[in-house]
Amino acid sequence: MPSQTGRMxxxxxxxxxxxxxxxxxxxxxxxxxxxxxxxxxxAGQACGKAMFPAAGVAGVVTxxxxxxxxxxxxxxxxxxxxxxxxxxxxxxxxxxAGMQLIYPAMERLPxxxxxxxxxxxxxxxxxxxxxxxxxxxxxxxxxxxxxxLTGPSGSSLPAAGIVLALASGACMAAYLVLNKRAxxxxxxPLTWAVVVAALLIVPLAPVTxxxxxxxxxxxxxxxxxxxSAVVPWSLDMAALRRLPERVVAxxxxxxxxxxxxxxxxxxxxxxxxxxxxxxGCVSAASAGVALxxxxxx
Length: 297
Fold this sequence. Notes:
Blueprint: H1 19-22, H2 30-50, H3 52-76, H4 86-99, H5 102-108, H6 111-129, H7 135-150, H8 159-183, H9 189-201, H10 215-240, H11 245-252, H12 255-267, H13 273-295
Helix pairs in contact: 2-10, 2-12, 3-9, 3-10, 4-8, 4-9, 5-8, 6-7, 6-8, 6-12, 6-13, 7-13, 11-13, 12-13
């Protein structure tokens, strides 16, 4: 399975694409870089949810994307894209904007549950691309996890939250496909796509309650952007220089579990045993698909 990135992947922005990339972490065991990326994005999302009372869902999304775009532009200072890159960048930016539906989903669902449902997007993409009959077993395991989350024991989950998380996952799957295609164009399409996503979301802020401008809220928004986007991107770039992408994908399978732990630690969200088991099923299915593709490509 491709590297699952609610964060951003190094695939479209090579290590030498800008000064910020050259400053990405280079030392330390590569698996720890991936683990740090997984923990960072999920902790960042949990912290974003913790900001909802102060900034609102729309405010958190707006601050996250606006600050992420600003910091990434300052770090990478990319050259302007060519005319033939504009359409792919716009499509990729729209997919990134759509992925932000995870935040209204988290307003209705625990972080771990929302992250698991979102993760079904890239997992489904990987299963669709699979060619081995044994992969049906991984699909069945993932389906079991979904039933455990949304079946009778999960009947208390709001339908709107489930739909929003799944929609975010669909956008994530589209992001992975578009990211690969845009990367073939060269340059820094992903950096500009983040800018496009911010331009799509920020104008909506006034009609969705606005964005608080108190210094403490702005500083917290900057922290969420750095923790959930900029830091994972830097760690991913460093890890992908030293590990095969499919190995990274296996470790990224920990993301739903990391989301559940982040929700517990940051927000005191306690999940039932059946929901922990469901998260484990989806993570195991994702890791299984990634390992199978690594061993048969």
